[in-house]
Design the sequence.
């Protein structure tokens, strides 16, 4: 006699001693504890049961997502899967480096803040459910952090028809600067190589007020 049970189900089978001494149970719930008993019978007599306790492999975390507008940190969130889970294994790092160097953390809740990210960089995140010594399959997600904002902007020269602005060295990865100079009636936009930190804007109208806004940008693939 072979039986398998957990808190909500109980299945019993009678297996002849002439049949193979193995059986494949299907349709078990993920992340659940089961007890298996094997009893030898002869007529109405029964042996003491041989018992085994096991856990099925947990299901993957559900609805893994990132908070928006990531620059130097991002929240990773997910929903618990069906069945039991003790914790979650989170592994993350730059896509451009060997994954052996990625950081691994164990999380008891359903969210985690990944900090100290490099602006304008591509990251990968792997997450698994953990139950005892068992882990689920990996859920992989990727994100790109936004380029950082400028810390300081300097107006170097200005006259009736032109101006020159400069800014401090940028932190993180990006492809170029885009400088926008605008007033209520006209907008001028310049693309500046990342190696340069100065923009000269000409063709301005004397006696007018202008807004100047440099930003970092990346090429979109």
Sequence:
């Amino acid at each position: 006699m072979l039986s398998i049970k957990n808190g909500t189900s109980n299945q019993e089978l009678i297996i002849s001693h002439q049949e193979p001494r193995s059986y494949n149970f299907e349709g078990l719930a993920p992340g659940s504890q089961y007890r298996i008993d094997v009893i030898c019978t002869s007529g109405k007599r029964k042996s003491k049961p041989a018992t085994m306790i096991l856990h099925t492999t947990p299901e993957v975390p559900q609805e893994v997502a990132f908070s928006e507008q990531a620059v130097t940190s991002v929240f990773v969130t997910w929903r618990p899967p069906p069945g039991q889970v003790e914790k979650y294994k989170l592994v993350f790092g730059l896509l451009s480096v060997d994954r052996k160097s990625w950081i691994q953390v164990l999380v008891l809740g359903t969210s985690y803040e990944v900090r100290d990210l490099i602006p304008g960089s591509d990251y990968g995140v792997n997450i698994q459910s953990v139950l005892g010594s068992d882990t689920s399959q990996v859920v992989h997600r990727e994100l790109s952090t936004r380029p950082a904002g400028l810390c300081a902007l300097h107006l170097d020269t200005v006259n009736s028809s032109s101006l020159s602005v400069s800014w401090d060295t940028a932190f993180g990865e990006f492809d170029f600067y885009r400088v926008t100079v605008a007033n209520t009636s006209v907008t001028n936009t310049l693309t500046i190589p990342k190696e340069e930190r100065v923009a000269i804007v000409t063709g301005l109208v004397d006696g007018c007020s202008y807004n100047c806004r440099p930003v970092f940008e990346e090429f979109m693939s």
Summary: The first strand starts at residue 2 and ends at 5. The chain has a mean pLDDT of 84. The CA atoms of residues 41 and 47 lie 6 Å apart. DSSP finds no helices and 20 strands in the chain.
